[in-house]
Specification:
Blueprint: H1 14-24, H2 26-46, E1 60-66, E2 73-83, E3 86-90, H3 101-108, E4 111-114, E5 117-123, H4 127-140, H5 143-150, E6 158-162
Antiparallel strand pairs: 1-2, 1-4, 2-3, 3-6, 4-5, 5-6
Helix pairs in contact: 1-2
């Protein structure tokens, strides 16, 4: 199944906004970290990419990277959106003080697989482009604004994925 297109400009329904409110709450954050992160990869695989625990509030897909130290394949389920034809990934780590492990994997080995397609990842470093893309990320999920406030000065990295 091809990667589902996520348009950050698409108007969100009242149900999506309500579910997003739960996702931004303390119980919702706990659920995302401890339940969804384990269940979503399985649901994604068995449903052919049609279902995850987010029920359409945010769309996610599996990112397969090469471990920065181990060289072994590593998989994580990530939320994303599109900028034109390119998927954009947000290394928010739920607003944690450090970058997620997959960030280091992509920095060491930018070739990756996302949603079943091959890509090359590049970190967005241009300040204007970063600000524009982060504003789009906040349209997809307002919780990214919360994460920005919790990162204690850490700049949340963004990656643009392009076809090889």
């Amino acid at each position: 199944m091809p990667l589902r297109y996520v348009d950050p400009h698409q108007r969100r329904t009242w149900a999506q906004r309500a579910a997003e409110g739960f996702g931004r709450s303390q119980p919702g954050q706990w659920f995302a970290r401890h339940v969804a992160s384990r269940v979503d990869p399985v649901l994604y695989r068995i449903s052919g990419g049609r279902f995850t625990t987010s029920a359409g509030v945010v769309v996610n897909a599996p990112l397969v990277t090469t471990g920065a130290k181990s060289g072994h394949p590593r998989e994580v389920q990530l939320t994303y959106f599109h900028d034109g034809a390119d998927p954009v990934l947000i290394a928010s780590n739920f607003g944690g003080r450090s970058h997620p492990q997959w960030y280091y994997n992509l920095k060491a080995h930018p070739e990756c697989r996302f949603g079943g397609s091959d890509f090359v990842a590049s970190e967005v470093t241009d300040a204007k482009e970063y600000d524009r893309l982060f504003a789009l990320a906040e349209q997809v999920y307002a919780g990214y604004r919360d994460y920005r406030g919790k990162t204690a000065g850490r700049r949340i990295p963004l990656f643009r994925l392009t076809a090889p």
